[in-house]
Amino acid sequence: MQMGLCGSMAQDLLDAVAEDPNAARTEIKLLLLGLAGAGKSTIFKQLSMMYTDGISKEERYKMLKFLRKNLAESVLELYTYGLKAGVCKPVLSEEEMAVLASKEELSDENVKALTACSEVLLKLRDECPTFLNVIKKLDDKHSEQESETRLEIYGQREHMEFFWQNLALIFAVGHEVSDEELLKIRRSTVGHQNLKFRVGF
Question: CA 123 to CA 115: how far, in whole Å?
Fold first, then answer.
């Protein structure tokens, strides 16, 4: 199965599908195309879980680190806008905002940075219960297209409430990403990906 972003490396995708003309007749090649955010990666993850050995611990850990960083950056952007729009209370200090903006990797090995970021996010969640209303405020203020563009960096927008309620778990050292979390994580894909699997009937 091939997956690719519409308009991205189209010729490479066609060439890949045309490879191996002597393949067994029982082999079916699928080409999955779609715009950004259409759910291509989600389908790939679901198929990997169902018909392969699953998604490795290493890949899950990479996705966890990406999720942590994406949440920190997205929350900082939303909080900054929320202050200007009057949706958020000024509960974070400049030092705490700097923690969210830090370029340090939020890995289990970097416990100090991970703990500091977690504490800031949990403080914001507890002291500003209306924080997630910032997203709705953006939607009301901008046209749908402008809002989607502005919120593109918030890769977890669709499932923000889920991750917001599970911050302590996500930032806990040693946390292993569940299948549910994995399917909710949104990450842009570039080019095309391959997946081989066998389905029994």
Answer: 12
Percent of the chain residues topping a pLDDT of 90:
27
| Interatomic CA distance for residues 135 and 34, integer angstroms | 25
Q: Would you say residue 141 has pLDDT above 60?
A: no
Instruction: For the chain, give the mean pLDDT.
Output: 75
Residue boundaries of the structural domains of the chain: 2-56+187-194, 57-184
Tell me the C-alpha distance between 54 and 50, whole Å: 7
Percent of the chain beyond pLDDT 70?
56
Q: In this structure, what token pair is assigned to residue 78?
A: 């939303």
Provide the β-strand partners of residue 4. 33, 192
What is residue 38's predicted lDDT score, i.e. its pLDDT? Answer: 62
* CA angle (135, 181, 155) in 5-degree steps: 35
Nearest to 41 by CA among 157, 192, 196, 199: 192
Q: Which residues contact 85 (CB under 8 A, 6 or more apart)?
A: 134, 137, 141
Burial of 26 from C-beta contacts in 10 A (0-12 / 13-18 / 19+): exposed
The mean-pLDDT minimum among 14-28, 29-43, 159-173 falls in 14-28
| Burial (CB count within 10 angstroms: exposed 0-12, middle 13-18, buried 19+), residue 102 | middle
- The reported pLDDT for the residue numbered 114 is 95
